[in-house]
Amino acid sequence: MKKVMTVAAILLFTLTSFAQEETLFGDKYIEHGGFGGPAVKFTSINNEFGVLVGGRGGWVINHTLVIGGGGYGLVNEVDMGLNEFGEDQYLNFGYGGFEMEYVINSDELMHFTFQALIGAGGVSLRTGDFEDFGDNVDSFFITEPGVGLELNVLSYLRIHVGGSYRIVNGVKSFGLKDSDLSGPSASFTMKFGKF
What we know:
mainly beta; single chain; 8-stranded antiparallel barrel
């Protein structure tokens, strides 16, 4: 885990340093923008198919560096078996945090991005149709590096398709391990804003 965190920190530092050397500390005028939009992730959670829905947003600096945040929550049922009363139990899972993104050749019709999320989340069990979110919530730390491909649809709209790997650390309850909640995701995001 320490190796993954070290590699992620070095990667983010290198990318932001490169952006600063190229644009932020030069003689050029600094341009600012921002975006926000909905996001959907498709993944495996506790060996079952999971759909996470949420959103992302950020401050765009010189069309290259994005500093922002995002949050995601599980919207489909991940079965966790029966409780002591014979009722079906389902997993509640969500997370969010600070995001950084580096955009390569932002003005090109299609371009690549590299991003990372560092934050926290929570997991609990519920019965029924989302009405009971449970009293016991187990919190965890999360890092999620990823890569994406963006399409400039309009001057104020970009479609982002990507892949990431969710690394969860600190789960201790409900018979779950960190590896049950960690795993790859495929994502789709609509970014609205000034880029």
